[in-house]
Amino acid sequence: MLYTSNASMGAFNLPMGSAQATYVKGGGAVDPNQSVIHQGWWHIHKHLKNLSNEFRLSKELFEGNTLTGGVYLAHYEMDDKWALGNQMLMTNTPHARPIQVSYVQNGRTYYLTDGQGLLDYGGYNIAEHGNANNKVFYLSDVWRIGRWLFDLSGRIENQNATNDVCNLSNVNLDGRDETLYDNAVPVCNGTYAHTRYDKTHPSWTLGINYELADNMSVYFRANKGAHFGDFDNAIRGYTTGNTAPLQKIQNFEGGFKYQSELIYADISVYHRQFNGLVYQPTDSQGVPVGQPSLYGSDSKGVNLTGSISPFKNFKVQLVGNYLDGHYSHNNSCFLYTDLVTGSSQCIRINGKPLQRQPKVRYAVTPSYLLPFAWGDITAYVTFTHVGPHTQDQSALQQLGTYSTWDFGLIAHVQDHWQISLQGTNMTNELGLTESNSRIFGTAAGTDGVILARPLEGREVNLQVKYLF
């Protein structure tokens, strides 16, 4: 029989010597010792409609002070069809190959997969319809006093939404017991689960800017707000009155700006806090204790945008950031099974780095402008570096670092033509942006195989534009 990877759902326990496994493409028998894995193929179709309108009035109350008030209204609808799951059986190797499997038991042939290697036809096949109205009233005041500039703004927002999701019943699609892949497919049964979501929350922001000179200033901003739920997050799957809490954001930042013919620099530091994610407190063994509570994240960092032009037509641009972010206020540990050892463990996420967020990221772009009588050409090269980052909240699956080289030649011909030749990842760097987000802990299987999203390979594009 085939040996399944720990990354799949376990052995199939087929009768000894009864299975026939062949490759979907190219045919040929599969080695019975081949490690295999499942991969889900998803299809989500969304039909969206939106109508919005904003009305505002501004009035100068006195010299240097302007007050603005406004109303924003929006109505939007969504019709969805989802098909999630659709597990395909394939080799647990790079460049995986789909496998189809059948077996004989008591003289009858059973089909574990269909002709494409699909083990099932999805575990979440829904139709969904939602509509929502957003109503916002806001006030903003801007006041300039000499070299000082103050702005204070606030708003109150209401989101009122309803959502209907079809209820599911398991159905044998073709009526045959031998085709195991479609014997219990969840399909809409004609009834719907209805959810009403109605929440109101204020937001505000305060900004201060002081001009040290005509080309130099320092600034500070504080703001606090919330993120409302949407049809796919915090509304679907919840009952009316028990929808997920608002996710709330608090931000403080300050910075320095400078500009001259030689240098441009914008340097800022920030402290951001998020909360509103629900979790269940547990003891050190993962046993639930107390009532569900909320956790979030705490981040501090530095952002830099700048350029230097040491001589005419030549410029070096730099964009970089440093992020020290971690999860906070989570008093629990999460039970999970290690894919490598097969043992169960309980790990805490409080204080762990934010998933997929590198601590250091920067891009350096030197460019040169060549003027001609008919127009100009700008040539540039960009070096980008992304530092160490992890896959999930456990911080156990490292995704490594990567660096890429890009280039570009952009020509402006007369007043209307633009010709661009641009290339990305010219060295075919292998870098991982994320791994399987549905696996907690180490995501690599027993053979060292990891399902992950890589960078796109080398790509070169030629584009011609006519500007009217």
TrEMBL record:
Keywords of this entry: Cell outer membrane, Ion transport, Iron, Iron transport, Membrane, Receptor, Signal, TonB box, Transmembrane, Transmembrane beta strand, Transport
Domain TonB-dependent receptor-like beta-barrel: 92-425
UniProt keyword Cytoplasm, yes or no: no
Pfam families named among the record's database cross-references: TonB_dep_Rec_b-barrel
Name of the molecule in the record: TonB-dependent receptor
Location in or out of the cell: Cell outer membrane
Membrane topology: Multi-pass membrane protein
InterPro entries the UniProt entry points to: Beta-barrel_TonB, Beta-barrel_TonB_sf, TonB-dep_rcpt-like
Gene Ontology cellular component terms for the protein in this record: cell outer membrane
Keyword presence, Iron: yes
Single GO MF annotation: siderophore uptake transmembrane transporter activity
Gene3D superfamilies found in the cross-reference section: TonB-dependent receptor, beta-barrel domain (2.40.170.20)
